[in-house]
Every structure is written in structure tokens, then in C-alpha cells.
Amino acid sequence: MNEENISIISAFFSRISQFFNEFSWQDIKEVSLSSITSFSENYENILKPALNETIYMSLMAVLFGFLLAIIPGILLAIWDKNGIKENKIAYSILDFITNILRAFPFLILIVVLLPLSKIIVGTSIGTNAAIVPLAIGIAPYLAKMLESAFKEIDKGIIEAAKSYGASNIQIIFKVIFSEALPAIISGITLTLIFTIGFSALAGTVGGGGLGDVAIRYGYERFNKEVMIQTVVILLILVQLVQILGNLFYTWAKNSKTTYIIATLLILLGVSIVININNDENFFWQAIIFILFLGSLLYKGFKK
């Protein structure tokens, strides 16, 4: 483990706190005004690329984290008491492992998994390298979220499906997932919000994004304007994620999943255009775009 990286991470919040403690009220007024006037230039040169990296890291981490969490989440739900295939021993073991992983400090997890990032993506720095620890770090949270969402389903619906002769696989994917979709969307929204915060921390060890900008351009160069602009952008980004999450939740409650897929398709299309010059980001986003498009077409043909 790289001791230098650990020291950087452990000192992150204290450094930021010390940075802002040097402000006086007069400083805050002056810096706020200069932040507004310098925003346009800083956004084009520094903040816009970092924002794109943060969005890319967060979305990819949640996507791959969700894929890692699906099987454990399903198993936790079906093995639990009153599950469709109760298994107390297996549930206790899997629940214990999940809770241990959730309790693991994320700041340390980033550094521990840097060698794994190098094996998977070929490098231990950059946005793609940061996705590996982000995805693994949030997967246990998503697994417990899925378990909770599945448990909220009315048992009568599951019993009705059994009475019609549905197999366990059919119950899981055609009944449980469908009924739990609003709760899943709500959980993913919350996960994406704190993943954005985690991605900022990943910037302290070369992960890129707004966290990297805040340290390199804000703290180390004593540029208070960049620091404030970075914080404001993160706040706005979190609010937008919450608004979209609430919208998707409402659509899911009204069984309008087609709208959700179509909206995600549009957002991914915009993201692809933004990152068209970034070969790595463009490739992965194009793949996801195709998957969502396939889902939308499949749903249309199924009707």
C-alpha cells in the first residue's frame, strides 16, 4: 500500500477545512464576486472537463456496482425469513460479508484497490481506474438496497404468482423486480448522490474529476475562486440528480418505465456528444447507449 497516497487521503478534509478557515467575512465577499466573474473562463478551461469526468465516473461506478449487487441482493431477499427459498445459514453468511464490506472505510478502499484497477484497466490513475474501487465500494450498499426493496413487496402478489404456477425465476424477474422498481430507483438515486462525493475523494489519488481540480487548482495553488466554483457545481449536480431521481420514481410508480428508458437514452446521447473526443469514455458510453436503445426497442416490440 502506498503510504503517500494514504496520507493524502487522510489529510483531505483537514486540508480543505484549513483552507476555508483562513477566510474572513470580507474575504468571502470578495472571493464570491471574483468567483462569479471568473466562472466562465474557469469552466471552459478547468471545470467542464472535470465535471464530465465526475459524471462519467459516477454513472459507470453505479452501473457496474449495480451489476455486482444484483445476485447478492436477490439471494439476500430469497434466503431471508419468509423469502421464497428460506435458508438461514446461507443468509447469515452473505449478510455478514455484505455488512463487513459496507463497514470498510471507503478512503482506504480506494488505495487498497489501486493494484486491482491496474490489472483491470491497465493503469492505477485516471477516471477509468477510479471506477473500479467506486463500483466495488458501493456494491454492498446496493445489495442491501435491493434486499430492502424486494422485502417491501406485498407477499400476496408473490403467493398469487405461485398459485398460477410461476417458477422462482419468473417470480424474481417478472414479479419482484417489476413491483420493486420504484424503490430500486429511489435507492439508486441516493447511491448516485454519495458516489458523486466518493468520486471527488478519488480525485485526491489521481482519479480526476472535480476532486482533483479542488486539490490541484484550488488548494495547492491557493485559488479560492476555483474551490468555491467546484463546491457550487457539486451542489448543483447533486440537486439535478435528485430531481431526475424523483421524476423516474414517479414514472415507475405509474408503470411508465418506457419514459425512464427513453430519458436515460437522451441523457446518454448528450453525454456521448460531450465526450466524443475522449476515446475511452466514448466507447463505454456508446455501449451503454446501445443497451438502453435495445431495451427501449424490445419494450416497444413486446407491446
Automatic annotation (TrEMBL):
Signal peptide: none annotated. It holds the Pfam family BPD_transp_1. InterPro entries: AA_ABC_Transporter_Permease, MetI-like, MetI-like_sf. The keyword Transmembrane applies. The keyword Membrane applies. It is found in: Cell membrane. One of its GO terms (biological process) is D-methionine transmembrane transport. Its main location: membrane. It comes from the Bacteria. Keywords: Cell membrane, Membrane, Transmembrane, Transmembrane helix, Transport. One of its GO terms (cellular component) is plasma membrane. SUPFAM superfamilies: MetI-like (SSF161098). Belongs to the binding-protein-dependent transport system permease family. CysTW subfamily. This is Methionine ABC transporter permease. It comes from Campylobacter jejuni.
